[in-house]
Amino acid sequence: MTDQAPRRLPIGLTLSVLVALGILMALGGWQLQRLAWKQDLLARVAALQSAPARDLAPLLERVKAGEDLEYARARVVCPGIAAAPYLEVYGVRGGQAGVRLVSACALEGAAYGSILVDRGFVADTISARPPVDTAAAASVEVVGVFRAPEKPSFVTPANDVAANHWYSRDIAAMAAQLKAPGPAPLFLMAETPTNPEWKALVPAPLPAEISNRHLEYALTWFGLAAALVGVYAAVLWRRWKA
């Protein structure tokens, strides 16, 4: 009788499984970190949205001092904004594509000379636009939510300034196009109508629901890791049983 050869781990397969397992566990852990971040964000949004809107100027002083006031509610009187020039930013609301109209609100006695106001959403089924009259001086009080511009991803189209087609919110470029001096680093997303008589322009400062599926994603990655371990164990069992 001859002794049975010692059973050894398949080096290549084991290393590949360990690398893949590390990646899957890291992705699951990252999603748990994102879950904690999203929960904090949702709690913050809920608290700020239930608070009364405050005057814009003092809030901008705090923003200039470095305080993070994204999602805080503010109110400001904007001269002539109902008939102000606007930029069209591509957007989607409730599954409907369209554009969001952005105009500049001139400020006096504030930390910044102006703030860009997202006046609301217009569906792409509507070709009309509100009138533009730079001589109009009627003032409108706007109540809105501070939002920071999101960084464009690698799939975001470049802004076409000449055609007034914007896909990312570049405050400096947009302020220059609107001739708005010293723009604040945040947008004011209008909650209240800037054109009450023009119903097609719908104020929509926040998504109807901020998605929070990070726990689901984490469980998916951890589940794949467990399945990988199970497959690896099954392969070893078959090799050693043979």
Would you spell out the secondary-structure blueprint of this structure?
Layout: H1 11-49, E1 54-55, H2 56-64, E2 73-79, E3 87-93, E4 96-106, E5 114-123, E6 139-147, E7 165-166, H3 171-177, E8 183-190, H4 214-241
Parallel strand pairs: 1-2, 3-7, 5-8
Antiparallel strand pairs: 2-6, 3-4, 4-5, 6-8
Helix pairs in contact: 1-4
Structure description:
The protein has 242 residues and is α/β, with parallel strands linked by helices. The chain folds into two domains: 58 residues; 138 residues, no CATH class. Helices cover 34% and strands 23% of the residues. It has four helices and eight strands. The protein has an eight-stranded mixed beta sheet with strand order 1-2-6-8-5-4-3-7. Strand 4 and strand 5 form a beta hairpin. Helix 1 runs antiparallel to helix 4. It is elongated. The two termini are 18 Å apart. The relative contact order is 0.19.
Give the gist of this structure.
The protein is 34% helix and 23% strand.
In DSSP terms, counting alpha (H) and pi (I) runs of 4 or more, how many helices?
Answer: 4
Main structural class: alpha/beta
Strand order of the largest sheet: 1-2-6-8-5-4-3-7
Helix content: 25-40%
Which keywords apply here?
4 helices; 8-stranded mixed beta sheet; alpha/beta; 8 strands; single chain; 242 residues
